[in-house]
Amino acid sequence: MKKQIWKTIWLFSFIIGTFSLNGCTKEELLSQIQHESFSMISEYTKTKYRINIMYPERFNTENNYHTIFLLDGDDYFNEAANVIARLSKEKIVLVGIGYADKNQRGTDYSFPEDKDFPGDSGGALAFLKFLNNELIPWVEINMGIHSSDKTLFGHSLGGYFALFTLFQQNQTNPFDNIIAGSSNLMWYNAYLFDLEQDYYNAFKGLEIRLFLAVGDLEGASLNLFHDAFVEKLRSRSYSGFSLNFERLKNTSHRNSPIVTFENSVSILF
């Protein structure tokens, strides 16, 4: 019976995490925003990505910037770029990661693979290699973007991936800040709780700033898992670790991404 309950949660969380973005109205970019786009195919994931970059108004390749890598760039890039512009954050470069062809977020943002979604889940390790070995070097070398620090933003299943990246032991975590909104902590029998425990058993340092958020209208399960994960992290004594967490008032799953982004950017920068 317990196994069946968890299976129901997996299926529900995958559907919500993968398809809840459909139907969102995309905001137009403010006219003063400087941006450009390009595509690249990853050798690791075999997927073609569409990359959008927002530059500060007075961008200079000799300067260092806070570089934010935004998951689900197809859906959130314009809104996130407008938030940065409205907040007058002159030292931020925004890199939106989207898809040129079929959206593969269900594969890229999840691990382990769920046998109920063969070929459509479990690719997070390959996607992290894409970020580490292809995308980040490309924007640094070919786009002339030098980072004083790097931030990863993810929402829902993207939030799961952001936290998955945080507790990796076999790959380098290239990020100084992690923003995880409405994270799908239910994925694969709450695998992230075990991953964090394994990390804590091996390391007592975690040199990173973490911002977690969840909306109060996102349902009991999402809030319950969020609270449990926050309490687990608060009980740790990681050296160099900074944790911010927030429950967003009157906020649903669809509305939480940009609210989380704006609040976290205001706090982190």
UniProtKB/TrEMBL annotation:
<dbReference type="Pfam" id="PF00756">
    <property type="entry name" value="Esterase"/>
</dbReference>
<protein>
    <recommendedName>
        <fullName>Esterase</fullName>
    </recommendedName>
</protein>
<keyword id="KW-0378">Hydrolase</keyword>
<comment type="similarity">
    <text>Belongs to the esterase D family.</text>
</comment>
<dbReference type="GO" id="GO:0016788">
    <property type="term" value="F:hydrolase activity, acting on ester bonds"/>
</dbReference>
<dbReference type="InterPro" id="IPR052558">
    <property type="entry name" value="Siderophore_Hydrolase_D"/>
</dbReference>
<dbReference type="InterPro" id="IPR029058">
    <property type="entry name" value="AB_hydrolase_fold"/>
</dbReference>
<dbReference type="InterPro" id="IPR000801">
    <property type="entry name" value="Esterase-like"/>
</dbReference>
